Predict the 3D structure of the following.
Amino acid sequence: MKKYLVLYAVLATALLVAGYRRYRNETGRLTRNQHAMATEITHYRTRAGQEAASNEALRLRCREFEALRKADAAEIRRLGIRLRRLEAAGKTVTATSLTASAPLRDTLVVRLRDTVAVIDTLRTFRWRDPWVQLEGTLGADSVCCRIRSTDTLRQIVHRIPRRFLFIRWGTKALRQEIVSSNPHTRIVYSEYVRIER
C-alpha cells in the first residue's frame, strides 16, 4: 500500500512541477508580448550610414495569430499555406522621400495635327542616383513624371540572452533588426510575429 502512496505522491509532484513550469513559461511569454507591443520602433544608423530600425518580436500561438491578425491570416491562406505550418510572419513599411533638382533641357518633338506635322518644344529633366531614377517632361499644359525607387530591406531576427553578472543564459527577448540599403528610405513600421507551439 505504501508503494502506491509513494508512487501517487511522486506522480502528483511531477504533475504539479510540470504545471508550474508551463504556467511560468506562459506568463513570461505574455509579459514579453506586452512589453513588445508597448515599445516603439527604435531608429538608428549603421556604421556604413544605412537607415536601420529595431523592435521586439511578438510570440503568438497559432490560434492567437489567427484571432489577432485576421487580415494576415487570410493573406497566408490565399497563398495556399496552412497556418499550422507557419513559423513566423513579418511586415515592414517604408517611406521614401527625396528632394531632387535637375536642369531643364529643351527637346524638339514632331507631332501630327490634322495630318500636318507640327514641331513642338518640350522641356525635359532627368536625375538619378543608385537608388532613385527621376525623369519627366513639361509640356505647354501638362507635366509627366516617372519615379522609380529601388530598396533592399534586410531583416535579421536574433535572441537577446538573459544576463546575470557575466553569465548569459536562456532567452530574454527576440529582437528584429531591419536595415535599408536606400539612404532616402525611412522605416516607418515593422512587426515580426513568431508562432509558438
Notes: DSSP finds three helices and eleven strands in the chain. The first helix runs from residue 2 to 38. The longest strand covers residues 167-180.
